[in-house]
Amino acid sequence: MSVEYKKTVILPQTDFPMRAGLPKMEPTLLEQWQNDDLYDTIRDISKGREKFVLHDGPPYANGHLHIGHALNKILKDVITRSQQMMGKDAVYVPGWDCHGLPIEWKIEEQYRAKGKNKDEVPVAEFRKECREFAQKWVDIQREEFKRLGVMGDWDNPYITMDYRAEAAIARELGKFLMNGSLYRGSKPVMWSVVEKTALAEAEIEYHDHTSKTIHVRFPVVTSSVEALSDASIVIWTTTPWTIPGNRAISYGEDIDYAVIEVTETAEECWAKVGEKLAVCVDLVEDMCKNGRILGHKVVGTFKGRDLEGGIAAHPFRGQGYDFDVPLLAADYVTTDTGTGFVHTAPTHGPDDYVTGLKHGLEVPEMIDAEGKYYDHVPLFAGRFVYDANGKEGDANETVIAKLIEDGALLSRGRMKHSYPHSWRSKAPVIYRTTPQWFISMTENGLRETALKAIDDTRFVPEAGRNRLHSMIANRPDWCVSRQRAWGVPITVFVNKKTREPLRDQAVLDRVYAAFCEEGADVWFTWDAQRFLGNDYNADDYEQVMDVLDVWFDSGSTHSFVLEERPDLKWPADLYLEGSDQHRGWFHSSLLESCGTRGRAPYDAVLTHGFVLDGKGYKMSKSLNNVIAPQDIIKKFGADILRLWVVSSDYHDDLRISDEIIQRHSDIYRRLRNTLRFLLGNLSGFDEAEKVADSDLPELERWVLHRLSKLDDLVRETTEAFDFHQLFIELHNFCAQDLSAFFLDIRKDALYCDAPTSLRRRAARTVMDRVFDSLVRWLAPVLCFTADEAWRARYGNDSSVHAQTYNAVSDGWKNDALAAKWEKIRKLRRVVTGALEVERAEKRIGGSLDAAPKVYASADYVEALNGLDLAEIAITSDIELIAGDAPEGAYRLDDVAGVGVVPALAEGEKCERCWQILPDIGAHPEHKTICGRCAEAVDEMGIAAE
């Protein structure tokens, strides 16, 4: 009876399945982590190590996670896990923003649906409903984040509506109050008529909007320019409703202006023949075209600086607008559009306000919270700019009609342009002057401190530095007040006589203590005297009922998270958010920290792009191109989503689609197969089998060199937060260096060599090291799969996430050996290409059928000296010939000096290893196998019967 040789082949053995089944496997592993208290175990192991703290920018607790959340949290998790693997104590504390308009808006919507009026509901009851709504979504989002594989202190997150957090936020505001930076002033702020509150720049988004445009005459009263004595200055604006707020006209000192006399007009033209109009020289033709002026002549020219001291009249003079309109120089006047003269309404724009402040102009309050003119506004009282639904009111048309009636309108038109809208209601906003609370950018040098802090911060990518720098350099004072109910109140008392805020630390301390015990609701329910104590009479003070801008909340998180939690540190090593947070969280955190601590709360800032669909379009329900992370996880698993994050260049916008995810699923399958091959062929491997480095064959030593170089790259890219580059290198290592080269070559030895053969033991020794390093390197990204593979080898009581990156020996580096094997791989590529042609032509069935002749130049022959080229090329035999290949030999254009002439191997096919060799039948006990296989079978104690 003969041996069944196929059963003597040492095939891979592993319980690590080929098919991942991630949607089912991942929840099981999550439960295992929870049961093992893995996060706390890692913290215990890491005590005493250098800390790495990525401070979590708080997402908003008001809905299910979208793909942008997934990108952000996965990237944070990859960074935190990789820093942990670097041997640090990488603590991650997740957090949530819970105050603010979006949640308040949701509760109001519920009220409106029930026919209830929010203003009739006690504020404490309303705030309680907001709190419950936020808590519900915190709990939902927590589970969704955990399902992404994000590891953190989920049992102890920070939440801005927690009592101690609210107290800390109020305490931080108190610091600005006490140092004199906080003040109340009337300035133009962006105002949402729909939400009835001031909005921060971060709450604004820009959309196309069609505005009414007008050219308006302002008659000149006095001027040193003789040509203006009986002329009108012409302004142009896209906001006709702001004309009642006009208090000046701005010009550019170096701009060239002309006075033209109208000589001919079209029908239905509001210009009059003989009248004189002043306009920028470069914009005369444009104004005439819009005003249907067919003919004109220039009667005078002058420089803008010649206008100094001039006075014009308001178009509605004699009807409640009897003040002078001074002509004032301003550096923001341009000649791109309009007339070169800027209608200046200090109550309706930041540039206008600054000009008015500089020259002592009146800053009247013109528009109320509902978007209509106050009763005291002559001619237009009660007219709406926008209504409660964000639709255009009657203010524009009423103003235009009055301008026509008074002969002041020169032309009207329409223009489509980018215009600010509320990010919540999507309605247009207006600039409105109203009393608000501001933090000064200049009082205590906040701007200069913040700019220096930017210089001292590391930005990834570097372009983020300039973006944030320009925002801080040019921003106005920080408006921190909101006219809403759900938020941390502005805990300030204002003296009714002096109108000065009360600055008393004892009062602030009582507020802080009360908030710690009962939350910020007490500001609205307690009697004011309890806060003021015995030193002040509540009747003498106005208690401010505005709440803080939610960006002040999130900007203060460093104070009650990083500083107060013993497991963290201040400042954070890293803040990481989307690129929009240069005007959001990075911005507000910088200002808050610089204003109270003199430096940024972070050492580094990393930004990522936005997620677009596969065609590069922004995701929206209307386009039906929204891809939910929950759907991807349900179908493919979270590891595929994590793989998508790191395989993309997340510094730019990322694209995602079903096809892209499927492509990453295929990439994942190849990585998994590599891990499975390693596991299967390491079955039973132990310390006794290991081969010393000095005894390893060249091929194995080349693999160790690659491990060493990759280890350098892993550490470099981890510190650079460049996981895109790392993923490319790790994927190429698995696909090209391992699967297509080293493991491909060594498969024969692993399966067919005797168990004690040096070649097989050496291969397994190196595979052991490859597995141990590779799984650790992949663990921050493929957190589920890497841990599954680790447990498959080391048992369920061990987790890869409790490990660190391996210490790699510098002795493994061998650049000369690497260069030699790079040359060998080039030659092998030519041989492989030649055999592929033979296989395609069906002249061979596989590479073991071949025994090609390889012609190579001397350098290739020297590189292969002492090596078995047949083993490397996976052929049964091969002949290496020094010299030029004959005509017709197979060549590759990019590998000079190598040619291959295919030939068939001679001999019989070994029943065990399938090589075609001449010694088949020469072994009496094993007549159908080769000598190498016969020795292996004998060693295994199997004899023919």
TrEMBL record:
Keyword Ligase: yes
Keywords: Aminoacyl-tRNA synthetase, ATP-binding, Cytoplasm, Ligase, Metal-binding, Nucleotide-binding, Protein biosynthesis, Zinc
Coiled-coil positions: none
SUPFAM superfamilies: Anticodon-binding domain of a subclass of class I aminoacyl-tRNA synthetases (SSF47323), Nucleotidylyl transferase (SSF52374), ValRS/IleRS/LeuRS editing domain (SSF50677)
PROSITE patterns: AA_TRNA_LIGASE_I (PS00178)
Cofactor note (record): Binds 1 zinc ion per subunit.
Keyword ATP-binding appears in the UniProt entry: yes
Gene Ontology CC terms, in alphabetical order: cytosol
Domain Methionyl/Valyl/Leucyl/Isoleucyl-tRNA synthetase anticodon-binding: 700-849
Residues at which Zn(2+) binds: C910, C913, C930, C933
One GO MF term attached to the UniProt entry: zinc ion binding
Motif ('KMSKS' region): 618-622
Locus of motif 'HIGH' region: 59-69
Reactions it catalyzes: tRNA(Ile) + L-isoleucine + ATP = L-isoleucyl-tRNA(Ile) + AMP + diphosphate
Residues where ATP binds: K621
Major enzyme class: ligase
Binding-site residues, L-isoleucyl-5'-AMP: E577
The protein's required cofactors: Zn(2+)
Segments forming domain Zinc finger FPG/IleRS-type: 907-935
Compartments where located: Cytoplasm
One GO term of the biological process aspect: isoleucyl-tRNA aminoacylation
Subunit structure, interactors included: Monomer.
Family of the protein in this entry: Belongs to the class-I aminoacyl-tRNA synthetase family. IleS type 1 subfamily.
Protein known as: Isoleucine--tRNA ligase
Species whose genome carries this gene: Thalassospira mesophila
Gene label: ileS
